[in-house]
Write a structure and sequence with these properties.
- There is one protein chain.
- This protein has 50 residues and is an all-alpha fold.
- 54% of the residues lie in helices and 0% in strands.
- The chain is elongated, with a radius of gyration of 16 Å.
- The termini are far apart.
Amino acid sequence: MSEPLDDRLRDDDALAEIELTSRLMIAASGAGDRLSQDEIDGLLGLDQDA
């Protein structure tokens, strides 16, 4: 039986960065060509009007 994770060890910033990197890796591996800057910005959730 494993012990539950200690919440003090949780790093929300690192987890968010891992999620964004995962999105980029998955999108890039499924793309037929290079991702455009607009596609990358969309995957990262960046506001294109900023």
